């Protein structure tokens, strides 16, 4: 049933490309575990041992705080249609902010979305599949545009103000670096 691999295969990459949703898990040694659902065509496979995903502004910024302290990250994909499978990518993440030397090159791989906050870059050290036979079927009906509409309405200055108010500290009061690092651009 479950299999382990040192890197992504062509079949894994094809499976990832077909998914509309993935989950990100992070934690420090002492923090709460954070699991966040992600969509919006925001993930790119760069090679068999590296993926990046674009993070837009949200109500919290746990992932950035966790990665700054303890860079381990897990991404999970589930088949909600077709053959059952769960695919997990384990590795070490780096966070890229606007103004970082790597930003422009990585951001060019993604759609221009309002409220873009960071890009997370995962170096994979383990790929694991499991059966997924208990994952239910779901029908994809389309993307929600609410977050894009909210960020567009706020505008760039409004987003930065939101970061200062809501995205600087994690639930466990860890710094996220969002304001300091975004001031460089």
From TrEMBL:
Coiled coil: none annotated. InterPro entries: Pyridox_Oxase_N, Split_barrel_FMN-bd. It comes from the Bacteria. Residues 14-130 form the Pyridoxamine 5'-phosphate oxidase N-terminal domain. This is Pyridoxamine 5'-phosphate oxidase. It comes from Ahniella affigens.
